[in-house]
User: Fold this.
Amino acid sequence: MQIPERPPLPDLTDKQVESLLREVADTMKELVDGFNLATEYYSAGGRDRATWNQIGDGLGRKAMGLMLKLSGPGHPYAAQDARNAIREAAGMTPQDGGTRETIQQTVAMGVLATLFTAGQHHMVEPSDWLDELPAVVLGSVRNAQKINADPTMANLRDKGHPG
Assistant:
């Protein structure tokens, strides 16, 4: 993928580090609370798979949020690069496509930024991804059954991406 070259990043300021630590502390507390909930459920005899899936999904989302917060200062352009790539793949701005397009592009941008971040964690830079990735991510979001079945999407009058 074509990602613009950027100059080296300056060191973080005290204010930026303090803000990051505050954000991470809140997420860490939520993770510990979720872990304690799981431990209490197990200790009370809880073995229901659906409940464990909910607990695990909740912890996984919090952990993913923690990863994104911690990697953010090292990769501050991930969200902007994802937004630009998704808009190019869509061939329109969210405003031009209506509410459905706005929602789909916003979700696709989040997925792509998460892929960039996870990739960088595993030493795959945004420029290493195939050029087709933004279109694949956007197409997947547009076709996602859960997204399309969501009441918000189902009640929209605009029909989404033309063609």
About this structure: The mean pLDDT is 92.
